[in-house]
Specification:
The structure holds 3 protein chains of 3 kinds. Chain A is of the alpha/beta class. Chain A is built from 18 helices and 12 strands. Chain A has 2 domains: about 170 residues, D-Maltodextrin-Binding Protein, domain 2, CATH 3.40.190; about 230 residues, D-Maltodextrin-Binding Protein, domain 2. The chains are: A alpha/beta, B mainly alpha, C mainly alpha. Chains B and C meet through helix 1, helix 2, helix 5, helix 6 and helix 7 of B and helix 1, helix 4, helix 5, helix 6 and helix 7 of C.
Chain lengths: ~475, ~300, ~280
């Protein structure tokens, strides 16, 4: 009897699924796609905007998809999408969230001929696949984007993406702890050199609290800390590209470079005061955020996005901020005092698997994100980072985001990336591993430098 | 081919003993019984494999529209790639320990669970449950245990080497991987061993008992030899599973600390997807496949030979 | 007799300890799914301060649990049933007809079992989703799952059938059953234990499959449980609390099915052994 019941259930489920399977097959027929080999649409934008009013009057249903690699913000984007859809009837946006395997999912979407219309990706990924992307130069909406932020998304003079937000990378500080340490009002701009920083650390330790915290994960040490050494401290964009190319060709070695050694010296110094000293790699963003928020450590090397992890844990009114990582003892070197900022992600439009209508709808979506006041408000609140949109009046609640915005307003920032393609997309994984090894003391500076040299030797020459 | 009298009678009556009619019957039998599975498998495994094989001769990055033919360049690079060879060696070490550990535990558990002690069914169910959970999920749970659970335990008891996370030390991280994989696989192997053990004729066991054999003797002289086939199956399955271990590798260690527990399947995945070097990643997969196929086929061949002799 | 009983008690005690050790991760899973993340991180072994179900509510909502469960079940049931039918038949063929072609195909099956999935991962997606347009189609995922599990199933079935004496086939022959009738009337009933074993393994594999399904099922309403767990994984960390609840919920259906079905597994195995 029981067996018959079970087999009946199974048959029922099978039958139901066959029906849904048929249903799925018909609805999952891919939306009209352009020929994959067709050249990306070029300067049709002006013509399109002229026709826009007429086209809108006769608007048909357009379905586009939006793929985001900014995890943990699903609710924010879904909110924006429904607002966008209500303001743009006729356009439906399908939201595709990434997990922690952003690149693989993107590749799988393209492999199944479902390349997302709008993707929020790292500049390096967009650069590597620019042949698929729609060039955005000349679009009216770009006028609303600050020029300095566009450079990260510009390849060979053409803009391919709209930056999402500005992120500051540096040493976060808990103002209350630092005030107690210096016995007064702590001023981050007083830290101009490595020695200044060490001083501060000693003072914090004297109050019985760990001076700093390093989260020993590959992306923080590899993508962020290490890449500082390819930053403005070396020089302008051209100098940085030349430097990296000289490592690729083997002409120079990292171990001979002052900037590299400078940053590593600072890391060595910070490691001595590391809250996670006993087990440097056990680091977890949640735990370390908790440590900073609760004042168990005075500072933390991270970025302003860490506010997401801290917001729930801090006392109301508690002050936090960011300061740059000094790489030398030269008080006159401004790069010791300027905060590296990056436009870590950008919105791009796919032209290889989306029709012209879809691309135009995608443009509208990006325009909405970058210029609509409601969208800016929501983003300022949820992202807590400075938005590179000129008409933005929304205020940020995150003290970290405000700190970054302060540096930007004062002009005391350096562009973290320089060019979108300076650091390859897997540097966080490969070199991050070497950095982790270095942090635990499992390898020495020379070995680290050699491994990094070997990594670069396998890369192609970088372009401006 | 020796046929018994009934076969002769049956086939002779229907005139399908030899010749064309025989061939047609054979073809029909094959079509009905063998063709469906073969075709499904062929379409799902072989065709993509061939396509993938073609990709190994290109420099495709997995996403680009352009694709260039570069001959054997990928393979040449693999042979000199110390990272790939290192990952392969680590996987061999991992497989060695895991296969031995999981088969031992699985076999012993199967013995215990078929020996007639109280609560057998409960044990049987209990030991199999780890296998129910997928590799990814398992990895996350154990990740937490090794990073924080055991450290709390270490603090409690004061054992010093337990106070740092297992996953931040290359040797202990590999040990953790072995333990978790063995933990998951032993239940799986236990069930197969149970099936094999229950097939051992009970009159043989009865005879042994009457003759006064100890448990040890029963196990080593009767049970183990009788389940040679099962052992072969289990070793084969565990070896191939170990070499393809990915889910747990990803969620437990993600190749860390600093890429020291990057097993070969994980390395392939990283090459193809994170480094966007799809052609080479695919080539690495082919190389791995060839190596493991040889190992497995050799193992099956030798155990089958042993069985025939026995 | 006393010695025997003592020994059995000791064995029982040791096995019980081992079982408890085996179950520790489950304990942690259950216990921590009732805690908010902060409490969880403080002491993972402790019992929860209060049994709040917030995590579960979050998990059900974020994972789109009902639909994901249905999708996973649909794929698993279809794949298991189809796989069982075609593989048992092929297993019978390979065991009873030692033709050259059967041996070659069998070897090919074995060889394909050791190929890492990455070898045909993207090509599979390009062909079936890209060219043929079957992305987000549950039945396509089931079809692929069938194909991927055929070698393993055939391997086990053929091994088992080889253990069934061919005298039975002959007896059927005398009664006038040909190859096909023999299979359906004589052999198949005897395959119960191995069918159950294979079904359990294939079902586990398909239910828990992540990589293959994630390539084809990208839309929210076609995702399976294993894929939807990923919503708790962010770029930099994991939302442990709701994830634990989600994991527990995902494991529960399988656990229940297993607990109900394991009586059949046992009965099947016993029936098999009595026959032996």
């Amino acid at each position: 009897m029981k067996k018959r019941v079970i087999s009946l259930i199974m048959t029922g489920v099978m039958g139901a699924t066959l029906l849904t399977g048929c249903g799925n097959a018909s609805t999952s027929a891919p939306a009209a796609t352009t020929d994959e080999n067709a050249p990306a649409a070029t300067q049709e934008a002006p013509a399109a905007t002229e026709e826009a009013p007429a086209a809108e009057a006769a608007a048909t249903e357009v379905n586009i998809s939006f793929y985001t690699t900014e995890t943990g913000k699903d609710d924010m984007y879904q909110d924006l999408i429904s607002d966008f859809e209500s303001k743009n009837p006729g356009i439906t946006v399908e939201y595709i969230a990434a997990g922690d395997d952003q690149l693989q999912q993107w590749m799988a979407l393209y492999a199944s001929n479902e390349g997302p219309t709008v993707s929020l990706m790292d500049p390096i990924n967009i650069w590597e696949n620019q042949e698929r992307m729609r060039p955005l130069s000349g679009e009216a909406m770009l006028d609303n984007i600050t020029e300095s932020s566009l450079s990260t998304m510009t390849f060979n003079g053409t803009v391919y993406a709209v930056p999402m937000s500005a992120a500051g990378i540096g040493i976060l500080y808990n103002k209350a702890v630092c005030d107690a340490a210096v016995g007064g009002d702590f001023d981050p701009s007083s830290i101009k050199t490595r020695s200044d920083l060490k001083d501060l650390f000693d003072k914090i330790e004297a109050t019985g609290v760990a001076a700093t915290c390093i989260t020993g994960v590959n992306w923080s040490l590899g993508a962020h800390y290490l890449c500082q050494s390819y930053g403005e401290a070396i020089g302008d964009t051209k100098a940085r590209v030349d430097y990296v190319n000289s490592i690729i060709s083997g002409e120079t070695k990292e171990i001979d470079n002052d900037v590299f050694n400078g940053f590593m010296d600072t890391l060595d110094m910070m490691a001595q005061y590391n809250y996670n000293k006993n087990d440097p790699l056990v680091g977890d963003v949640n735990l370390d955020a908790m440590a900073l928020a609760e004042g168990k450590c005075g500072t933390w090397f991270m970025g302003d996005w860490a506010w997401t992890y801290m917001a729930e844990l801090v006392e109301p009114g508690a002050e936090f901020g960011l300061m740059p990582v000094p790489h030398s003892d030269d008080a006159n070197d401004v790069t010791n005092q300027y905060l590296p900022t990056s436009f870590a992600k950008g919105y791009c439009i796919d032209a290889s698997q989306n029709t012209e209508e879809q691309q135009l709808a995608g443009l509208k979506f990006i325009e909405y994100i970058s210029s609509d006041s409601y969208s800016q408000e929501v983003q300022a609140k949820r992202l807590g980072q400075a938005l590179p949109f000129k008409n933005c009046t929304a205020t940020i609640e995150s003290p970290l985001g405000n700190s970054t915005a302060g540096y930007i307003a004062d002009g005391r920032t350096v562009d973290f990336y320089g060019t979108p393609s300076l650091c390859p997309s897997d540097i966080w994984y490969e070199c991050g591993a070497y950095m982790c090894e270095y942090l635990t003391g499992a390898c020495d500076r020379k070995t680290l430098a050699d491994k990094i040299d070997a990594y670069w030797a396998n890369q192609e020459k970088r372009e401006y | 081919m020796r046929l018994s009298p009934s076969f002769y009678k049956y086939y002779k009556e229907r005139g399908i003993m030899h010749g064309r009619k025989r061939a047609i019957t054979n073809a029909l039998e094959f079509s009905l019984f063998g063709l469906p599975s073969f075709l499904i498998w062929f379409s799902v495994v072989i065709i993509p494999f061939i396509y993938g094989f073609w990709i190994t001769f290109t420099d495709w990055n997995g996403l680009a529209l352009h694709i260039n033919f570069i001959g054997l360049e990928n393979y040449r690079h693999i042979l000199t790639d110390s990272a790939f060879l290192g990952a392969f060696v680590k996987t061999v070490i991992y497989a060695l320990f895991t296969v031995i550990l999981s088969n031992l535990v699985g076999f012993i558990l199967a013995l215990v669970v078929t020996s007639g002690i109280k609560g057998q069914n409960l044990f049987r169910t209990g030991f199999f449950t780890p296998n129910i959970i997928g590799g990814i999920i398992l990895g996350y749970i154990w990740n937490f245990i090794f990073s924080f659970g055991l450290t709390k335990f270490g603090e409690f008891t004061g054992i010093s080497w337990m106070q740092t996370s297992w996953l931040t030390n290359p040797t202990r991280a590999l040990m953790a991987l072995i333990i978790v994989s063995a933990w998951q696989m032993s239940g799986y192997l236990m069930v197969i061993y149970i099936a094999g053990l229950t097939a051992v004729p009970s009159d043989l066991l009865e005879a042994a008992r009457v003759d006064g054999a100890t448990t040890w003797q029963t196990v080593t002289k009767i049970k183990i030899p009788m389940i040679r086939g099962t052992i072969a199956i289990c070793v084969f399955l565990s070896i191939s599973r170990c070499f393809m271990s990915f889910d747990t590798n990803l969620s437990l260690t993600a190749g860390g600390p600093y890429k020291s527990t990057e097993l070969i399947a994980y390395k392939i995945y990283q090459t193809a997807f994170t480094s966007m070097n799809f052609g080479e990643g695919q080539a690495q997969a082919i190389v791995l496949f060839v190596i493991v196929a040889i190992i497995s086929l050799l193992q099956v061949y030798f155990t089958r030979k042993g069985r025939v002799d026995a | 007799m006393r010695a025997e009983r003592n020994r059995k008690s000791i064995t029982f005690a040791i096995t019980l300890v081992v079982l408890i050790l085996f179950m520790v991760p489950f304990y942690m899973l259950v216990v921590n799914s009732f805690k908010p993340t902060a409490e969880f991180l403080k002491n993972p072994f402790a019992l929860p301060q209060s049994f709040n179900v917030d995590n579960f509510i979050t998990a059900i909502d974020r994972m789109n649990f009902g639909k994901s469960l249905f999708n996973t079940a649909a794929i698993t049931v279809t794949a298991v049933v189809v796989n069982m039918i075609v593989s048992a038949m092929t297993g019978y063929l390979f065991a009873r007809r030692k033709w050259k072609i059967n041996k070659i195909i069998f070897m090919a099956f074995l060889a394909s079992m050791v190929a890492p999935f990455q070898v045909y991962m993207i090509p599979l997606v390009r062909i079936y989703a890209g060219v043929l347009g079957f992305s987000n189609n549950l039945m396509m995922v089931a079809y692929i799952a069938v194909g991927l599990n055929i070698p393993f199933a055939v391997f086990l079935y053929s091994g088992f059938v080889e253990g069934i004496p061919s005298e039975l086939d002959e007896a059927a022959l005398i009664d006038g059953c040909g190859f096909t009738r023999t299979f359906f009337h004589i052999i198949m009933p005897l395959l119960k234990p191995i069918i159950i074993t294979v079904t359990v393994f294939v079902a586990m594999g398909v239910w828990n499959d992540f990589l293959m399904s994630s390539l084809f099922l990208t839309k929210v309403d076609t995702k399976t449980l294993a894929i939807s767990i990923k919503t708790f994984l962010t770029n930099h960390s994991a939302e442990y609390a709701p994830m634990m609840a989600g994991l527990l919920l995902s494991v529960l259906p399988v656990l229940i099915f297993y607990l109900i079905g394991q009586k059949y597994i046992i009965e099947g195995v016993i029936a098999g052994s009595v026959k032996g």
